[in-house]
Amino acid sequence: MRTLTIHTPDDWHLHFRDGDMLLETVPATARCFRRAIAMPNLVPPVTNTQLALEYKARILSAVPEGVTNFEPLVTLYLTNDTTPEEIEKASNAGIVASKLYPAGATTNSDAAVKGIKSLYPVFEAMQKTGMLLLIHGEVTENHIDIFDREKAFIDAYLNDIVSDFPELKVVFEHITTKDASDFVKAQSSFVAATITPQHLLLNRNDLLVGGVKPHNYCLPVLKRNIHQQALQETVASGSPKFFLGTDSAPHEKHKKESACGCAGCYSAWSAIELYAQIFDDLGAIDKLEGFASHYGPDFYGLPRNQTTITLEEKEWTVPDVIALPNVKSSNQSLADEDAIVPFFAGQPLRWKLA
Questions:
Q1: In 3D, which of 301, 323, 229 has the Cα closest to residue 12?
Q2: Is 70 exceeded by the pLDDT of residue 250?
Q3: CA–CA dist 236, 116 (Å, integer)
Q4: Cβ 270 vs Cβ 318: under 8 Å
Q5: What is the pLDDT of residues 61-117, one digit of tens each?
Q6: What is the DSSP-derived secondary structure letter of residue 166?
Q7: How, if at all, do strands 322-323 and 339-340 pair?
Q8: Is pLDDT larger for residue 342 or for residue 110?
Q9: What is the pLDDT of residue 109?
Q10: C-alpha closest to that of 217 among 262, 260, 254
Q11: Is residue 351 within 8 Å of residue 280, measured between CB atoms?
Q12: What does each C-alpha distance from 206 to 71, 244, 256, 265, 318 come to in angstroms?
């Protein structure tokens, strides 16, 4: 049996959600990750320092007993009302990043930014304090094809942001295209990107061919296979500008399988195993540790983890469904509203966390 021991990885982009959902998502993440960047698109969104610290406390309250070193890294949700003073206050409180969502780009983003250049004073404050800017890089204009929105965002906004703020650390999150990969590679050391398991494993055929597959629906949406192949080549190259960010985003089964299904793939339950299979399939298993454990903290200016995890080459099957905590200890039957269908449900994986 092959085994692989690496420094404990971190997840630099995920959605814990809130309330009872934390009792599922936090243990699932803490089982293999030491740190996790928590997205702020709650209802209401996490728009200031006090709300961020309160959210961090709720996350920590859901950490399983016996897990002592898990650290959620909370973020601010940027709006047109965000001020430079709030950025400085957040930075002083230890908040390492703020998130830019163009309005309407993804789940719970209606309160987000309209008119990105209006945030330039905020970006200036972030550059000054060393706070990172995390970007959901898509335009949202209706006349732009959904498969072209990432490239359009680069052309319309991102080129200007990195040019106008050359020492602002920018993470182009969950990139999906060759255009985004090439853009990041061409930039300075102040620009990096995260890549999800779904955008490495799947392309738009996996969403649309043979009928719509709602549990593969995410935003940014899956792209054509040439973009998937470009992302695979990028991670296999071992470039330190790209690191792990699952964008794990849970929704109850009935909300995914509806007339207007929610966007998001819940991958936390098998995240490191998914990445291990991807890197192994690419003949680049030796590059996994850098991608999962080293390049993220290096970019964020945080210490690398000194603990380790071990993966075994041992086939197992991702569950078809995961019961939410409110029914795990009860005798009631599992209804759609009580369950999540995890990403890659019912499919085999070759690596398992020991």
A1: 301
A2: yes
A3: 33
A4: yes
A5: 999 999 999 999 999 999 999 999 999 999 999 999 999 998 765 565 566 677 888
A6: T
A7: antiparallel
A8: 342
A9: 56
A10: 262
A11: yes
A12: 34, 22, 16, 13, 17
Residues annotated catalytic, as ranges: 247
Tallying the residues shown for the chain, one arrives at 354
Count of other CB atoms within 10 angstroms of residue 191: 22
Are 336 and 320 in contact by the 8 Å Cβ rule? The answer is no
Q: Which helix (H) or strand (E) holds 254?
A: helix 253-256
β-bridge mates for residue 313, sequence order: 351
Q: Where are the alpha helices (DSSP H) in 31-98?
A: 49-61, 84-92
Question: What is the pLDDT, as a whole number, of residue 330?
Answer: 44
pLDDT of 25 higher than 80: yes
Apex 312 CA angle, 306 and 313, nearest 5: 140
Residue 270: φ, ψ to 5°: -140, 30
Token pair listed for 152: 């359009």
Distance CA 319, CA 198 (A): 17
Residue given tokens 């960010």 in the structure block: 245
